[in-house]
Amino acid sequence: MEHPGKKRRFDDTLLAVVLILVGIGLILLYSTSAYNGRIKFHDSLYYLKKQGFATLLGLAGMVVIARIDYHRWIPFAVPGYLAATALSLAVMFFGDEYNGSKRWLSLGPISFQPSEFAKVAVILFLAWLVSANVKKMTRFRTLLLVLVSILPIVGLVGASNLSTAIIILGIAVIVIFTASPKYSQFIWMGAAGIAFMAVFLALESYRLERIAIWRNPEKYEKGYQTLQGLYAIGSGGLFGRGLGNSVQKLGFLPEAQNDMIFSIICEELGLVGASAIVLLFLVLIWRFFVIATRAKDLFGALIASGAMAHMMIQVILNIAVVTNTIPNTGITLPFISYGGTSVMFLLLEMGLVLSVSSVIE
Predict the structure, then answer these.
(1) CB contact at 8 A, 355 and 6
(2) How many helices (H) and strands (E) does the chain have?
(3) What single DSSP character describes residue 107?
(4) Are 225 and 328 in contact (CB under 8 A)?
(5) Lowest mean pLDDT among 157-161, 267-271, 291-295, 305-309
(6) Three-state SS for 49?
(7) What is this structure's pTM?
């Protein structure tokens, strides 16, 4: 409970960087999506309006969650995780398919991606589970049991969305690593993780096909998007063509406002502008690290560590896909790519981290 007459003070730098990223994200989204919106929906503001509404909801949620003591979420850690698992299971049976991927659930007029909720639910669940068993974390058996506890959701999400499954697995490993005093055990966990991923990739032929496309995108029809993205990056040069002046977004790069938005940023703002965006993400990740080290208890430190892992992995994967450093996995750039569910749950997650950073004065 807050003391009468006292107020909470949050991490100002984290809050400022989140608001800057959200603002820049909306500007870049409009620049990238205006053409698509005009062609498909006769409204150049179509994508911006949808994203803007989700952002306002997310910001309102962030403010509310930031003011709630994060310990109050402990009773919701297990129910939240079970709900995320149930929703991920529902996607397999009742999910909507877009562009060949079944990742969405529709409730009347509202369509959302349960995998975005799953990321936040897993962070909260693991923070609770690891802090509750911290004295046993020296045992390899405990580490294994904690990791096994999230495999159901990794498997369910991974069935339709491999990239999000990798993020959830990455969050788990970093949260466990943060609380574990023995680092040697992670060699075995790493080997097990690689073996699990190898089996997972081999189960579906289209995943092996993606590797072939990644190696030689010019030989495959499905490599078209990757090549157009690389053309956009190359044509941007040092300072770019200028905001709004991208050529690739004019129908050459399919669905440019989604996963490939970073290539349009490179084309319009050049290496300098793209580097500025990456710098903002680095500052954000640094603040998560600072909040984790200064947290009042392990539960708070693990929430901040989980958010840090989430942001770090997702940004690296998105930029790696856009630059064709890794095979295309269909992953969004946080706060910037189009996706209402993504931006909303990201902002709720930021609220959770702000709550951990808060000091009552």
Answers:
(1) no
(2) 13, 5
(3) E
(4) yes
(5) 157-161
(6) helix
(7) 0.90
